[in-house]
Structure to design on (750 residues):
């Protein structure tokens, strides 16, 4: 009561406590704001990514629409199939073609020696670190050999682990070579005592997809029983058309790129669907659905699943009318092949095709049940109940999958039964996420290892400024107009004293209006809006990858396109356009030139419209 | 009088928009629910600084009768709007924060070592906490 010194002491410690609490509180608020900001950024990136993939699946329905309604295109598609079947024969017989490609003495990149050994793996790694490019001769040889060996693998590889032989599982790499180097640095190169599973999506988006594929294939050829490759949704030649791998190949291999693309088409389809570890862990790229049938998946002819965008035909009533019809309306001959016009076409039955799509495209979610995956447009969202049901049905304990970017490189959900593993760090941008891999050993819990390729911190505040080269890069990347951005910069943005661009200043004077309804859009605008879809469609029709399509093909294509997207385009307009574009009047269109021409024309038209800001 | 009412309506509408946007970021299944563990982050990202105790009370207010681990937007919105209107849990101004550090830095060095900070942040005196009403 009377001791003044003790009361001062209490007062002092009270103040300290109050101070500490204030600081604590402030810090919590600060961390929360940063977390929210990180979430915002990730949500934006993810939405952009999935919306794009949704576009892919929409294309798939477009193709189905084509098959069902346009007989002459159907015939064309059959021609395409016949051609690719023939070429498959050709390629088996023309293995010598590879030998026809000489490696000049002047080539100072890595030279592989067949049969491959671990020396070749080291050679490749060193060469790729120096950013050398492997000669097409070796690329083709590796791909041929890989395809040959893959053909002998079952749909699911069964692997056993032991304390002396732990298994490492890696997720999506997406062409990010630095991440693969990091993994090998931290975890060692693949070998008999250091087995790996790569769970799909090795290619697309990153700029070293072919290098990653080469390293993985060579390692696979040296250690076929200890390096396991699972197919991902991006191991699909149609996806590659849109997401960058095709471009990368044609750019790095100007002479032989097309050949490489042709072999890849088949190689992908021979990649195993998944891996089963110690009879209790299922490793697949995407996920499962409530109808997933592992026994069926063990039996399907996986090589017939060429692409997510080439769906099975549901009926072929136009053609073989005297064969028996089963319930689904598809006709089968004795060998399970759909007979059409006398020539055997190799298709998967619809339910098998859907089973594989589910495996490659599905995502786990917290809600019980199984719902169509509206984000991606294919596969489904599967809940914890579906996981339990399927795992119990096949006496499995865990599902390891990839397919989704996670901030920590991995995520555990569904009560520990589902693990997502993602190995491309900084996937969306520097600092966006870590990469990770898992080490499995029977009898112990899985161990997770994380990494991030750069040292940049995640929480950099937006400064509203970029360097001129960064700004120019962004503008070109998004708009793809091939304009001299640096020269134009003074007209488009404010630049401060240090030469940094205040990028928001471009939008100061621009008024965003409601988008024009499709029914009234001009041909030019429509082409521009759907240019990436058109590119894919055109590429699909151009079977010999020559860059040319005939006038007839162009007209038919345009008619289909406008019918599907409900855009009214006048026939005469299309004809006029086709004629204009056929510059040398030889009856064929170089459609790359054609599409490019429209980018620039569109921009010019935009500037001429009244009301658009004077940016000078 | 009418003017003031209009102004308040506008303010409320703006708050609703902000709250909805913050909520949606954490609504991973797009079904107007968020994990209860994210509520603290959401509230703090809206500029409020409740203590842990206040946060617990808030969660109790917005939870379901039978706690499901999820908070629904319909329940969260009115409660959060009220908080923003009343300017409850405002963050302490920066100069007070500075003074708080100065209080802990009794030797007036201008810094705290890592160990000291850890000690202050993690030591709990349950009795004092109650007395201070935290």
């Amino acid at each position: 009561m009377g001791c003044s010194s003790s009361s001062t002491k209490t007062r002092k410690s009270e103040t300290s406590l109050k101070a500490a609490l204030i600081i604590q509180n402030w810090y919590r608020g600060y961390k929360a704001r940063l977390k929210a900001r990180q979430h915002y950024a990730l949500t934006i990136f993810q939405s952009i990514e999935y919306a794009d993939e949704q576009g892919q699946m929409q294309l798939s329905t477009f193709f189905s629409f084509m098959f069902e309604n346009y007989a002459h295109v159907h015939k064309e598609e059959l021609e395409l199939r016949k051609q690719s079947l023939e070429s498959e024969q050709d390629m088996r017989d023309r293995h010598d073609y590879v030998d026809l490609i000489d490696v000049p003495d002047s080539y100072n990149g890595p030279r592989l020696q067949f049969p491959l050994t671990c020396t070749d793996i080291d050679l490749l790694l060193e060469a790729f670190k120096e950013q050398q490019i492997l000669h097409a001769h070796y690329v083709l040889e590796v791909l041929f050999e890989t395809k040959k060996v893959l053909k002998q693998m079952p749909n699911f590889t069964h692997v056993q682990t032991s304390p002396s032989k732990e298994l490492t599982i890696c997720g999506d790499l997406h062409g990010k070579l630095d991440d693969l180097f990091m993994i090998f640095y931290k975890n060692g190169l693949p070998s008999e005592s250091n087995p790996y599973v790569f769970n799909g999506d090795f290619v697309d988006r990153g700029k070293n997809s072919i290098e990653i594929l080469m390293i993985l294939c060579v390692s696979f050829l040296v250690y076929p029983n200890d390096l396991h490759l699972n197919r991902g949704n991006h191991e699909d030649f149609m996806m590659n058309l849109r997401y960058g791998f095709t471009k990368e190949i044609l750019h790095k291999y100007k002479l032989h790129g097309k050949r490489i693309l042709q072999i890849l088409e088949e190689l992908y389809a021979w990649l195993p669907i998944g891996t089963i570890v110690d009879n209790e862990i299922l490793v697949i790229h995407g996920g499962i659905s409530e109808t997933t049938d592992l026994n069926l998946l063990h039996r399907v002819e996986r090589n017939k699943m060429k692409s997510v965008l080439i769906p099975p035909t549901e009926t072929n009533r136009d053609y073989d009318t005297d064969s028996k019809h089963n319930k689904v309306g598809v006709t089968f001959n004795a060998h399970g092949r759909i007979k059409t016009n006398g020539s055997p076409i190799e298709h998967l039955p619809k339910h098998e095709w859907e089973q594989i799509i589910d495996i490659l495209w599905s995502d786990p979610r917290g809600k019980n049940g199984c719902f169509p995956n509206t984000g991606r447009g294919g596969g489904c969202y599967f809940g914890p109940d579906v996981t339990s049901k399927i795992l119990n049905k096949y006496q499995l304990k865990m599902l390891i999958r990839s397919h989704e970017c996670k901030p920590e490189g991995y995520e555990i959900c569904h009560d520990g039964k589902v693990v997502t593993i993602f190995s491309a760090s900084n996937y969306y941008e520097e600092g966006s996420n870590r990469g990770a891999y898992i080490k499995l050993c029977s009898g112990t819990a899985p161990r997770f290892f994380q990494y991030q390729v750069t040292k940049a911190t995640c929480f950099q505040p937006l400064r509203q400024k970029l360097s001129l080269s960064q700004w120019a890069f962004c503008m070109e990347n998004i708009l793809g107009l091939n304009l001299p951005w640096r020269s134009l910069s003074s007209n488009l943005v404010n630049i401060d004293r240090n030469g940094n661009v205040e990028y928001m200043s471009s939008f100061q004077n621009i008024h965003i209006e409601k988008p024009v309804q499709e029914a009234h859009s001009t041909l030019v605008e429509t082409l521009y809006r759907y240019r990436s879809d058109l590119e894919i469609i055109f590429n699909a029709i151009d079977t010999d990858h020559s860059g040319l399509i005939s006038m007839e093909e162009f007209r038919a294509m345009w008619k289909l396109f406008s019918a599907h997207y409900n855009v009214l385009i006048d026939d005469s307009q299309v004809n006029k356009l086709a004629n204009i574009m056929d510059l040398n009047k030889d009856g064929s269109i170089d459609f790359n030139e054609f599409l490019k021409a429209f980018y620039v024309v569109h921009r010019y038209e935009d500037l001429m419209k009244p009301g658009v800001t004077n940016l000078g | 009088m009418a003017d003031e009412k209009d102004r308040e309506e506008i303010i409320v509408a703006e708050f609703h928009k902000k709250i909805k946007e913050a909520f949606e970021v954490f609504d991973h299944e797009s079904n107007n629910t968020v994990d209860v563990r994210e509520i603290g982050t959401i509230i703090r990202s809206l500029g409020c600084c409740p203590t842990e105790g206040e946060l617990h009370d808030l969660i109790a207010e917005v939870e379901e009768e039978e706690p499901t681990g999820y908070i629904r937007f319909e329940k969260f919105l009115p409660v959060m709007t009220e908080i923003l209107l009343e300017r409850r849990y405002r963050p302490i101004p920066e100069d007070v924060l500075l003074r708080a550090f100065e209080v802990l830095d009794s030797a007036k060095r201008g810094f705290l070592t890592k160990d000291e900070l850890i000690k202050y942040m993690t030591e709990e005196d349950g009795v004092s906490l109650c007395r201070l009403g935290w």
Notes: Chain A touches chain B through 28 residues (CB under 8 Å). Chain A has a mean pLDDT of 76. Residues 108 and 132 of chain A are 9 Å apart (CA to CA).
